[in-house]
Hints:
The complex is a heterodimer.
Chain A: E1 2-8, H1 19-30, E2 35-39, E3 54-57, H2 62-84, E4 89-92, H3 94-98, E5 102-104, E6 110-112, E7 119-122, E8 131-139, E9 142-150, E10 153-156, E11 164-168, E12 178-179, E13 181-183, E14 186-189, H4 195-198, H5 200-215, H6 227-242, H7 248-256
Parallel strand pairs in A: 1-2, 1-3, 3-4, 4-14, 5-7
Antiparallel strand pairs in A: 5-6, 7-10, 8-9, 8-11, 11-12, 13-14
Chain B: H1 5-21, H2 30-38, H3 42-47, E1 54-58, H4 63-76, E2 81-83, H5 91-100, E3 114-118, H6 124-131, E4 135-138, H7 146-149, H8 152-165, E5 171-175, H9 179-182, E6 192-196, E7 222-229, E8 232-237, E9 249-257, E10 260-265, E11 269-273, H10 278-293, H11 298-306, E12 314-320, E13 323-329, H12 333-346, E14 350-354, E15 382-386, H13 390-399, E16 407-409, H14 412-421, E17 429-433, H15 435-447, E18 451-452
Parallel strand pairs in B: 1-3, 1-4, 2-3, 4-5, 5-6, 6-9, 13-17, 14-15, 14-17, 15-16
Antiparallel strand pairs in B: 7-8, 9-10, 10-11, 12-13, 12-18
Amino acid sequence: MRLRLAHLYPDVMNVYGDRGNVIALRHRCEARGIALDVRGPGIGDAFDPAECDLLVIGGGEDREQRRVAPDLAAKGPAIRAAIEAGLPALAVCGGFQLFGERYVDADGGVLPGIGLFRMETRHPGAGAARATGNVLVRTEFGEAVGFENHGGRTWLAQGQAPFGAVAVGRGNNGADGTEGARTANAIGTYLHGSLLPRNPAVADFLLGAALRRRYGAGAGLAPLDDAAERAARAEAGAIARRGKGEGAWRRLRGLAAGGWRRGD
Amino acid sequence: MNARIPLALGAARAAAALGRRLGRGGGTALPGLLAERIAPDAASALARPLAGGAVLVTGTNGKTTTARLLAGMLTAAGRPVVHNREGSNLTRGIVSALAAAADWRGRPRDARAIALMETDEAALPAAVRALRPRAAAFTNLFRDQLDRYGEVETVAARWREALALLPPDATLALNADDPAVAELALDWRGPVHWHSLAGARAGTGDPGPADARWCRACGAAYRYAARYAAHLGDWRCDGCGRARPVPDTAALAVERAPDGLRLDVSGLGETLLPLRGLYNAGNALAAVALARVLGLPPDAIRAGLAAARPAFGRGETVEFGGRRLRLLLCKNPAGATEALRLLAEDGAAEVAFLLNDRFADGRDVSWIWDAGFERLAGNVRRCRAGGDRAADAALRLRYAGWPAPASVTRSPAAFLDAVAAAPARDGPVDVLVTYTALLDLRAELSRRGAVAGAAVSG
Lengths: 264, 458
């Protein structure tokens, strides 16, 4: 079997280890004898979503998002139609924001989104604190573990399903307890970390949906030994639950030992 | 002289003495932190009397090594130096170094000295304001510690802020190969000394993610005739014609030698640098550029390069249990990718990755997915994962196609036990390690009486 993955703007939208998601999808395909062809359409490249089985887009800084937004707007109607017809997709951080209706950046500039998720993201201004830290989210795939780092705050429209409910961290906006968005077989989220290596159930949801779409309802994924993934989930989960602080004592000890110099 | 300075210095000395007594090496941040609390202008008050002026070294990677190389050149030229040698690079670390070199009233013990300070990227504006440097080197700009800085662009904005505060006759030593550093010249009217790895061969394999893609002057995409690593290379903008500047100091050739690198530096001739890795050639050029800005004679520059030793965790080796550990600090994708390239060149067989996620490491470990561990798939015969995020490290190695880790251990003690359990004939272990994991490992090694090994890495 063979699946075709489109990794949109791989060189541009990749700021927080997003390519880890592609590495995880490839790893979980190869372990099952499924070939994964990865294409990376960039700005100005022709792209037909009908020619892929799975779509991934990562995050970028504001300047990258400004670059990508007009091109994504041109590709948007086809992407949106394909996802609404069942194409599985993962959009992380900046990509998630651009899969909404619009993104209002720190300077008040408006970037159009593709409108797949009914939501709007507003950056509260250059002086506002970023939402940064470990995150735990309760989702239909179990608890998702990751790290968030975003300036924009996302507000879902009435009726737009979230990816999950925040257990630890800020999530979409730090106020309403939602994290990410879910539509058809698409997931939007602020979680990097990267998301898929440590959350294999989410990776398998995307791969399973892609496989059934391509090879029929009978196509299924063989189970894998996920002991290493479970260990990483447990480790990250424990650290997230312990809180982002290191504790006053440890910091004082660190200072005595040379401070939080990082050297180099 | 500020009346608070003697009090601030007394507190700094007491803290340093306490740190030494606790076996913490004298502490490199707490003395300065206390002094700054008592006398907020301590840095400028202590630096002002130094006749040699101040020189700052900043950038994502290479600050410590570049500053140490320059310190060696200054020493060889007989010029006294005040240097935050241990790499404590926030203003508190700078104040600690200045305080240690002053008498109780705040007067320098040697008024001829030059203040050489490696400076954290984000602390640069404050350091420039306090020290009013005569020269500043910018080594490179990569994604790093984004949980603290937010975005790479935030750091670039800090640097532009610092340029506006620099004395107008200060000289910038800029890495011509890094377009993100080169664009600083767009905001600078004063003198610039460019350096470049012009004669180096382009890197092979995955160069890692680029953090500079578009020209800040016109917005067009950069193109490369040769790419060394990440976005470093022979770049050009087709939109406005900006291109890698003609270097004032260039490596005409960079060759691997058994015990380091053979560099042919313009105007210096062939020199042996006893450090490994192309990134250290870049560090050497930055140091040579600064040395030339300071007017050091070529003999002293050559002597400084030849006397180079790996800094703390930058390729230093430690003998332990009959095996040699080589410690390679890495904390961001660019640094890790370069370290992995070095391991591939050396044919490393046993490699450990110790990953922490404390404040000084960066709380976010997602950067490990941007580092090219895949490069060593098929080479590594045995690997180990360790640190607070040992399981994440293990997952990364596994997904990169490395063998299943022989040990996954959180504590440095358990890691060393696992290493010692293998026979000495298994040969050296290369240890990729994040900052606080390195501190912990060093502490455990010294508890066990392991000593720093040969000065030359490799």
